[in-house]
Amino acid sequence: MKRWIKASIMLFATVVLLISPYNASNVKAQKSKKIDNLVILQNIPEAEIEITNNKVDLNALHLYSDGHFKAVSDNLTWRSKNKNVATVNQDGIVTFTGQNGRSWITVSDGKFTDEIAVHHKKSEQLIIKQKGKRYNIIDNAIKGMTLNEKIGQMLMPDFRNWNGKNVTEMLPEIEQMVKDYHLGGVILFAENVVTTEQTTELVAAYQEAAEKYGLLLTIDQEGGIVGRLQSGTYMPGNMALGATRSTETAKNVGSVISKELNALGINMNLAPVLDVNNNPDNPVIGVRSFGETPELVADLGISYIKGIQSNGVAATAKHFPGHGDTAVDSHLGLPEVPHDKERLLEVELMPFQQAMDADIDAIMTAHVTFPKIDNTKVISKKDGTEISLPATLSHKVLTGLMREEMNYDGVIITDALNMAAISEHFGAVDAVIRTVNAGTDIILMPVGLEEVVNGLLDAVEKGEITENRIEESVRRILTLKINRGVIKTENPVPVEQLVANAEAVVGSAAHKQVEADAANQSITMLKNDNVLPLQAAGEDKIVVIGNTYSKNLYDAITKYHSNTELIQASGPLKNDQLAALQDARAVIFGSYTFNVSGRAPSSPQMQLVNQLIEQVDAPVVGVGIRNPYDIMAFPEIDAYLAQYGFRDASFYATAATIFGDNNPVGQLPVTIPSLNGDVLFPFGFGLSY
Fold first, then answer.
1. Which CATH code for domain 523-681?
2. In whole angstroms, what is the distance from residue 50 CA to residue 309 CA?
């Protein structure tokens, strides 16, 4: 009888739980909506504080019962207890008056209150954080997370297309995946970011889809040959900046890029490349690097980083420990850097160490093997052969070298895990488990989201990965989000207002001027046999010849000289085409290469330019559209300019230089060898008018 009564009570309780609004899921939902406290963001121990022009912008957060937090701006009252020292407006902006002393800045929502001390003494201004358990919001957030939510913070997939179509607006299926997997971030590609209005709306929709924590919306907007945005300002790339030798220009370029990303709502840039490009045969880094010396890469890289991080956008240095001295593209294969640690510390690692010392937000790993650091061998799933462990999966590289020896405690993000260097040799789940145990925080573009999540859950359950290891990463990710303002808000700005602001910022005239200035400063003249600046009368014919991007070069030249013809060719010209060049005042040839075979004298393109040099009476001006190394195949050319990229600003700068409107001041950021291994043009070389 007692057993029946007990069973009945249990059955009744179960029914009550099922029909009651206070069942477990509802209790959890109500807990996530219950506000427990109000704090000033700048009181949080991990929060960075920046005082600019005697002002500091304070922000308030509501803390919820389940540990998550949201920014709040409406219905707050801000007050200064000593207006003689500092005032505060109702947006939380504190202004120091210049008078010595201390004031307390308070904020209240009518129920909860917080305060922070501001201090002015002589020329020093200080913000003094308050202490207490309620400010440990990151620890409290992690305590309130499920394991699924913790893993979700580490995931950063891409949604380039869906059912064969480019994703340019939020789809219900993607929105549900953001929620179901509790994603911490998403990476965007050119397919996703077509116009300023569309990009702003898509990014806002992603943030709206995230339930508790803001998303890291990430992109590769390096400048030069790597830029995903299809609207806005297209800055010259790193090697062009290296040619300028200007830290100010590098900072300005980084600042403009981040202002435009910030206006679009994109809060993390996978840039800059800090690889030292000391291998002319490198097929993947090349002009993405600032140059061939660690000093140049570090100086300009740090300035670029400061520009990026000055506008609420996280910067990411890549590809650690260094992808510059390789001859294999890790998108296609598994490269190796054979150098010992002493050499790596002097060259490859030096720019990364300086970036760490300058508080870089994140560092991206390289899918490259470094056998002198980690000689671990594994069996490739591709063909069963023994291979070295790539840096992305190496505990010795990511934890031993980066964390322990180089003292880096910021975010580590993998390069894309769908690249062949990883995907061909390791299973999708195996690669993710290895990289997490190695020390990775953000898993970029895992292969098969559901499979990877289940694999990580199983790995934690089996003890292959500790939950503490997961929490270490979540703590770093949340710290980054707090410091870059990637926080869900209770009072989101209307999308129409976001779009209006973005359209005013992205591609503005001021930004275009920074782009043009950088391009003009970068043009490097390596040879000039009294040909440039070109003097041409109106009736003189100029002929532009080339294949890839030759139309862009032609368009830029015609802005200076309308009597210009274009011959698009990828190999030697026929006799009738050569005959048409005999009355030309000058021939301008645009070469475009990205690998060793392309610049080989035997390649059709190089046969063409050497044919022009040998058989045309008019002077031949060469333009290295992308790689400055192209002149290795045609050193007898009459004049040669390197422009380091294929964006319009670089073509216009080249045209201005050819006709004397721009005095070339660029200096080679790399050494250009001759085909026999001698030095053709040394590092730092550059001619001017």
1. 3.40.50.1700
2. 12
Please give the structure tokens belonging to residue 332.
């296609």
- Which residues is 443 bridged to in the sheet? 155
Detail the DSSP E strand segments found in 404-462. 411-413, 443-444
Rounded to the nearest 5 degrees, what angle is found at the Cα of 657, between the Cα atoms of 545 and 680? Answer: 75
Question: So what's the pLDDT on residue 17?
Answer: 33
Q: Residues near 322 by Cβ (< 8 Å), separated by ≥ 6? A: 275, 276, 337, 344, 347, 348, 349, 352, 366, 368
What's the angle, vertex CA 162, arms to CA 148 and CA 153, rounded to 5? Answer: 20
The C-alpha atoms of residue 538 and residue 499 are separated, in whole angstroms, by 46
Burial class of residue 7 (count of CB atoms within 10 Å of its CB; 0-12, 13-18, 19+): exposed
Q: How many CB atoms lie within 10 A of CB 82?
A: 15
Tokens of 671: 């050494």
Structurally, at CATH architecture level, domain 35-135 sits in Sandwich (2.60)
Report whether 288 contacts 225 (CB < 8 A).
Answer: yes
Structure tokens at 115: 């305060």
Please calculate the CA angle 377-379-380 and round it to the nearest 5 degrees: 120
Q: Pairing state of beta strands 216-219 and 161-162?
A: unpaired
Collapsing DSSP to helix, strand or coil, 463 comes out as coil
Q: Specify whether the CB–CB gap between 645 and 669 falls below 8 A.
A: no
If we measure between CA atoms, which residue out of 639, 631, 568 comes closest to residue 599? 631
* Beta bridge partners of residue 622, listed in sequence order: 589, 640
The residues annotated as belonging to the active site are 331, 415
Spatial contact of 595 and 601, defined as CB atoms under 8 Å apart: no
Q: Which residues does 123 contact at the CB level (< 8 Å), separation at least 6?
A: none
Phi/psi class of residue 279: alpha, beta or left (left: φ > 0; alpha: ψ in -120 to 50)?
A: beta
Domain ranges of the chain: 2-32, 35-135, 145-509, 523-681
Q: Are 257 and 300 in contact (CB under 8 A)?
A: no
In CATH, what is the architecture of 145-509? Alpha-Beta Barrel (3.20)
Record the pTM: 0.92
Size (the chain), residues: 689
Find residue 268's DSSP bridge partners.
218, 314
Q: Which of 364, 285, 355 is nearest to 325 (CA)?
A: 285
According to DSSP, the β-strands at 101-108 and 377-379 are unpaired
Taking the chain (689 residues) in runs of 10, the rounded mean pLDDT of each run is 32 34 45 87 94 95 97 97 96 96 97 97 91 96 97 98 97 97 98 98 98 97 96 97 98 98 98 91 82 97 97 95 66 74 91 97 92 91 89 95 97 94 90 97 96 97 97 98 96 96 98 98 98 96 97 98 96 94 96 92 96 96 97 97 97 98 98 94 98
**Residue 541 CB neighbour total at 10 angstroms:** 17
In angstroms, how far is the first alpha carbon of the chain from the final one?
106
Q: Which residues are registered as beta bridge partners of 584?
A: 541
DSSP, res 39: E
What distances in angstroms separate CA 151 from CA 4, 223, 271, 314, one per listed residue?
Answer: 44, 32, 25, 21
Alpha carbon separation from 159 to 111, 237, 318, 487 (Å, rounded): 42, 26, 22, 22
Sign of CA dihedral 207, 210, 216, 220: negative
The set of residues, in sequence order, having a beta carbon less than 8 Å from that of 173 and lying 6+ positions away, is 162
User: Which residue from 253, 488, 268 is spatially nearest to 362, judged by alpha carbons?
Assistant: 268
Q: What is d(CA 361, CA 313) in angstroms, rounded to the nearest whole number?
A: 9
Contact call for residues 413 and 362 (beta carbons, < 8 A): yes
**Residue 522: Cβ within 10 Å count:** 32
